[in-house]
Sequence to fold (107 residues):
Amino acid sequence: MKPFTFDQIPVMMNKIHDKLEHLEKLIVRMSNVEENKEEVLNIQEASKLLDLSVSTIYSKVCKREIPVNKQGKRIYFYRHELMKWIKSGRVKTYLEIQNDIEKRSKI
Fold:
């Protein structure tokens, strides 16, 4: 890194300030993600999140098809577990299947 002149100091300080603000925003965003990761939902909130009826969720709980936490007679759900459950049902595209086959054939 080459030295900068006295006249360049204001410009450099502005760049440093902008980068620090960007880093602060990233840190705040990351901490919000961590807080939401442990967010506990009741059955009504889970119903809204999943766009399923409460009775359907109870049915899935009884069949052990959905991740659930039980405390006494009440059931609770972690948002991140429900999102992971949704993602686990993802259907691969034709291109992804084709790429998987090509990778296996190389081995």
In short: The helical segments are 9-37, 43-50, 54-62, 79-88, 94-106.
